[in-house]
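STRUCTURE:
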């Protein structure tokens, strides 16, 4: 396909996507901006050691929330939509109720383990702050509820109502509350940051509940069918490695770094990896934009339409990401200096982190292709191995080589995961979703 034709078709794709999901994208970008500004204020208000401890605990809370829900929300579209299409509303109600019961029942256990495990970071002033630990631990069920209910909302065609409170309201409220504390009080402490985070999670949960009360009212009927609960749990556990590497990568990376770096170094590492979130979001947004088109082509057996859609995505994805990478590497030092002179030494780490969105843009949405084609087992097995390797390599390299070693290990492991998925797709599907497909 000629480049001019690809560009014309890409414009058409972008026009359709903009009409369908512009509000979601704007809300997500605004939320990411608010989250970035919160970290900036945190870095300016607290010492690097305290910032590192706060970021470690918050990242760990996001990971712990997966244990609260057992990640069953990852199957919400599959199970709820399927049940409703078959006229089995009782199963859809059972899925929703089971998830809520699971969150309530497991929250105390997970939060208690979280508080006990916080002793792993003892010895630093902030991690020894019991108020900080308790506040972040108390936020775990709210994080789980937001993610679970947001997935339910997507399944019932109300994605904005489910996503906006989690991706927009929570970070904006966190920024607003923390800014207010800095403005009207003498200063902030790690405990203050933890309490602000808890308030933001609670506020977002209440707003999401109010927005979705009518949308998911089907769950309030007393008749429910829980008979498939084993399938729901098994599917959630099975897909957890994929979720951690795709949606929770920065939290898993910060947690891994905390196992090998001091709190001060974790702060620098965490700030550096935050810059990559926007570039990764751009890659994921393009992949999501073409996912429905690719899925329809797969279902129809139309390989030409499938490959054309993948080429369009490659064009939209790679060159903007490459430009963003060049800018980030060129101005890493000056940009990090905004957070304070202590963070400038993270410039090399930031340069390494650009390998993650660049490799994702280069190799293409192979995880999505494996899911669509029904090869979830292959994707899950590779992702589990990659997750284990990322945690081990980041922690060990951090101990041996400091911040730059940890960042290099994280980025290289992630790039190898993307490459492995690319090879599996080539082998099983005979499809090339990489930027190299533009040559054909």
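SEQUENCE:
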């Amino acid at each position: 396909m000629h480049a001019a034709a690809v560009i014309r078709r890409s414009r058409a794709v972008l026009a359709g996507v903009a009409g369908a999901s512009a509000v979601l994208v704007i809300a997500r970008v605004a939320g990411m901006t608010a989250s970035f500004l919160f970290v900036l204020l945190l870095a300016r208000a607290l010492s690097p050691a305290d910032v590192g401890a706060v970021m470690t605990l918050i990242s760990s809370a996001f990971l712990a929330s997966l244990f609260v829900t057992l990640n069953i929300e990852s199957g919400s579209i599959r199970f709820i939509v399927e049940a409703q299409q078959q006229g089995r509303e009782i199963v859809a109600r059972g899925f929703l109720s089971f998830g809520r019961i699971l969150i309530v029942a497991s929250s105390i256990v997970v939060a208690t383990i979280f508080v006990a495990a916080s002793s792993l970071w003892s010895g630093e002033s902030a991690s020894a702050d019991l108020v900080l630990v308790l506040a972040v631990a108390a936020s775990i069920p709210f994080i789980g509820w937001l993610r679970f209910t947001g997935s339910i909302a997507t399944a019932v065609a109300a994605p904005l109502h489910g996503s906006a409170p989690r991706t927009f309201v929570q970070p904006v409220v966190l920024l607003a509350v923390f800014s207010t504390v800095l403005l009207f009080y003498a200063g902030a402490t790690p405990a203050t940051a933890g309490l602000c985070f808890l308030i933001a999670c609670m506020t977002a949960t209440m707003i999401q509940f109010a927005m979705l009360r009518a949308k998911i009212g089907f769950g309030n009927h007393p008749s429910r069918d829980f008979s498939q609960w084993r399938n729901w749990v098994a599917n959630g556990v099975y897909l957890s490695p994929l979720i951690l590497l795709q949606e929770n990568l920065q939290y898993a990376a910060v947690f891994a770094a905390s196992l090998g770096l001091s709190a001060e170094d974790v702060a620098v590492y965490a700030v550096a990896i935050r810059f990559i979130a926007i570039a990764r979001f751009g890659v994921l947004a393009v992949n999501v934009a073409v996912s429905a088109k690719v899925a329809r082509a797969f279902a129809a057996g139309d390989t030409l339409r499938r490959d054309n859609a993948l080429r369009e995505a490659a064009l939209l994805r790679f060159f903007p990401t490459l430009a963003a990478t060049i800018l980030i590497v060129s101005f890493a030092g000056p940009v990090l200096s905004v957070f304070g002179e202590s963070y400038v030494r993270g410039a090399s780490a930031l340069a390494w982190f650009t390998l993650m969105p660049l490799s994702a843009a280069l190799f293409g949405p192979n995880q999505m292709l494996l899911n669509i084609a029904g090869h979830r087992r292959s994707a899950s097995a590779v992702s589990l191995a990659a997750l284990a390797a990322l945690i081990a390599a980041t922690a060990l390299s951090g101990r041996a080589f400091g911040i730059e070693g940890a960042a290099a290990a994280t980025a290289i492991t992630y790039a190898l995961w993307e490459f492995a998925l690319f090879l599996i797709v080539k082998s099983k599907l005979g499809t090339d979703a990489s930027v190299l497909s533009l040559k054909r």
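REMARK: The mean pLDDT is 85.
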